[in-house]
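user:
I keep going back and forth on a fold encoding question. Separate attempts, laid side by side, tell us more than any discussion would. Would you put together a sequence-and-structure record for a protein of your own picking? Write it directly below this note and I will take it from there.

assistant:
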Amino acid sequence: MHLKVKDSEDTMEPSNPTQAFKHNFRAMISQYHSVSVLGYKLFSDDLTRIPLRGEKCRVINCMSPNSYSLALKDEAFRKALHNTDFLVLDGVYFALASILLQGRNIKRNQGPDVFKHFIERLNENSGKAFFLGSSEAVLGKIKERLSKEYPQITAGSYSPPFKKEFSDQDNQEMISKINAFGPDVLFVGMTAPKQEKWSVQMRDNINASLVISIGNVFDWYAGTQKTIHPFFFKIRMGWLVRMFLRPEMIRRNLGNQLLFFWHIILMALKIKKQPD
């Protein structure tokens, strides 16, 4: 099986039916409400505006301060974020940056919100969901809970090898497993920036309507990590509770968080220009 790998944004006018469809679809996406901040266009609309089924596979990725800083050092990651069909808010900081720099808020569509929304829609439509990533133990717990809470969903899963980069053979195996199952929605649970880059690069090979990168949600839903009460997400303090529950995140992401805030300060003071 030959895999098509996408690593850059489409900038040319469509020259064949496939490109024409992609061009028209992106024109349709542009009609959704969005907010541009720090050089990224974030989806700021109701998730019901995103079709559950369609002729073309689309990708939903989450944007966070950590992602912003990682993308400054990883060109492939930056392109993947820019080439994402629906880039949604993950956490409070990007919304605060948008308010500070542009006076515009961003609609809250964080990872757990996105997961719950599409799982409920799949259940209402007797849809199929595939979970890619994590361990067999976690995937088993996800499917067990899903069968009790959302019995109308048919679920499949695959635990890929744990490595920094996947080989062509790894990618072919994952795509074969996914396409043989034929899900409506593929949930990808790897770490950033791996999951975002993989989702965009493999999009044209995937037989699904939506690919959603939600990483940490896998462990949360499986119950292998302590659950954060929805109240804290409602008041946009889920990030703080998560820091207390997982102190290793502070060590891993502190530098990226500080760089994000430093750039916000410089842009607010007009010392640094905000990216287009």
In short: The radius of gyration is 18 Å. The longest strand covers residues 58-63. Residues 8-15 have pLDDT under 50 and may be disordered.
